[in-house]
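WARN no homologs supplied; continuing
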Amino acid sequence: MMGNGCIFRYELADAWKMPISRIEVFQSLNGGVIRTFLLKKPAESADLTSDVSNETVIEQAAVNQIIEAIKKYDEVLSFKEVEFPFVMDGSINTFGFADGNQSCEIQAYNIWAAARKEKEYLYFEKPVKAKLLLELFTQIANVLITHNIGMQYFQLDIH
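OK structure emitted
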């Protein structure tokens, strides 16, 4: 759940809700803190704090970029869910966003399909909300990647 100054959260889990990775960005008085968690052997442990856990401090300008992106895509904050592809197995993607006034948490399933135009046939309806959510996610990921946060924290699929 969003709170305690958290402005962004993303977690990748397998179809059985076993967490694989998580990234969280917290706003602080003088900037922000990025917390990352990564399981090296997801099938053996569900405790994200036990495998690899890091904290990185970022400047206020980066926090502002993330908040500006969330405000630019404020429509996403009203989403309760996004379109669901017809895939029986795969990944669970949980996104959280907060802009200081409102927040949301969205659980998506196999959202990787919306990121690949050739996989849109997996949806019963066009993945409009999913694509908008992924645009916001990509903007935030780009900010964090410039602060040496690895791509493994932004994977959409478990494969």
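The CA atoms of residues 4 and 136 lie 21 Å apart.
OK
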